[in-house]
Amino acid sequence: MGPGGAEVTESLGLDLFAALERERATGKAGEVVSVPVFGAGRGAASVDGEVDVTLVLLVGLGDGSVAAHRRAGAALARAARGIDRLASTVTLTSDDAALRAFVEGAVLATYALGGFRTKPVDDARAPLGTLALAGDGARDEVVATAVTIALASWTARDLAQTPSNVKDPEWLAGRARQLGAEHRLDVRVRDEKALADEGFGGILAVGMGSVRPPRLIAMRYEPPKADRRTPHVVLVGKGITYDTGGLSLKPREGMVPMKTDMTGGAVVMGVLAAVRELGVEVRVTGLVAAAENMPGAAAQRPSDVITQYDGTTVEVLNTDAEGRLVLADAIAYAVAELEPTVVVDVATLTGAATTALGRGIGALYSADDALAGALRDAGEAAGERLWRMPLVDDYRYALDSAIADIAHIETTKVGGGSITAALFLQRFVRDVPWAHLDIAGPARAESDKNELVKGGTGFGVRALLYWLEAGAPVT
Ligand code: BES
Ligand code: MN
Ligand code: ZN
């Protein structure tokens, strides 16, 4: 039994070992055994005569790893629903990384979307109110960092979960302005007129099927001590506020989850909201290419040829492959105008990525080994697994177009839809170090599991923030 076990056993007169035995507890990570304290509330069961203890929760820490701590934190927070205050001694035996993971897990699992119900549902017990951690306060900063990161994921989840009758590109821009005001970020939004004047042909083409016009949102963070040599990270997020597929309409069931098709953008916004609090030492610009992909009367047609921001002409053969068109503009703009040290884009880009890696792992593409390694390591440490996928030269010809510079989907069958999408994006990065995260799988959770809550996950926020905290290493 971990620290505090003996004290609790003694002061409350509980036989915790008997409880563990009764439940056949194994101690695996995230296992929780609840031991109610009888007579609580009448002063009968108090520690040091001060606090009435109504429940003791025993949580398994498995192999004691960082991942096990994340799981334990999440399980504890879930088991403590409906409870106002919980004190934990887990922190007494965990190092900084484990403490962080424990707190991140607890806060992430406590997430609940509010605001769209008129009455609470019967079994919706309130999330745990306060979690007190045993310790002397020397590690308050570690805890604060963990909370900031988890809340950045909450921000992304909130945005992703918002229904699309509420959430359109201008609404998303409004949220960016709000976050900018709260976190001292410079926010600039291009409307459809500015996009047209400056030649953002991909964002406009995707947006023109909707009566709710597209936006390009730019959020800029400048660290307190920046000079000319301070690296500049540009994060680009796919911000499709709803993806019907456009004229290449999606089938009925496939369309339902598409309010979360702006998760990449939401992740970028969540990250930008956290960088100042985390003391990130590099410049960060977040670009969210926001459009609603609808089959309106002015919608683009399969077979149209559009011109991207950098002048590349693209034959659009399937209007449901809209994400790469808006991303290509934003990436090309970053490369041409923002002098980035590195560009990372995040997108719910292809169903094929889910087919390849499932719901638990994000697809990572980069030609830069150091960048790919750093992102993978950051994801591993943060509990967001990334798997490196190949940018196969042999598949490039599949994007050949008979009429334009390039087609945006394969014109020759090679398969590997996530790979061909990444190859399309790669054309727009020129010689800038670049990574692409296809998060179509892990952007949503089908059920509550560990630190995830059913619905939007905000996948990518943690990995990117861990990476930025480490100084965003590139070759
Ligand atoms: N937003 C979808 C990708 C997606 C699918 C995300 C399922 C999450 C769950 C994207 O815009 C899309 O429709 N991609 C097409 C590309 C195809 C037309 C080349 C796809 O994956 O089918
Ligand atoms: Mn689509
Ligand atoms: Zn999409």
Automatic annotation (TrEMBL):
Protein name (Swiss-Prot/TrEMBL): Probable cytosol aminopeptidase
Subcellular location: Cytoplasm
GO cellular component: cytoplasm
Record-listed Mn(2+) 2 binding positions: K238, D243, D261, E322
The organism of origin for this protein: Jiangella asiatica
Family: Belongs to the peptidase M17 family.
Pfam families to which the protein is assigned, alphabetical: Peptidase_M17 (PF00883), Peptidase_M17_N (PF02789)
A GO MF label: manganese ion binding
Active site annotation, chain numbering: K250, R324
Phylogenetic lineage: Bacteria, Bacillati, Actinomycetota, Actinomycetes, Jiangellales
Transmembrane helix among keywords: no
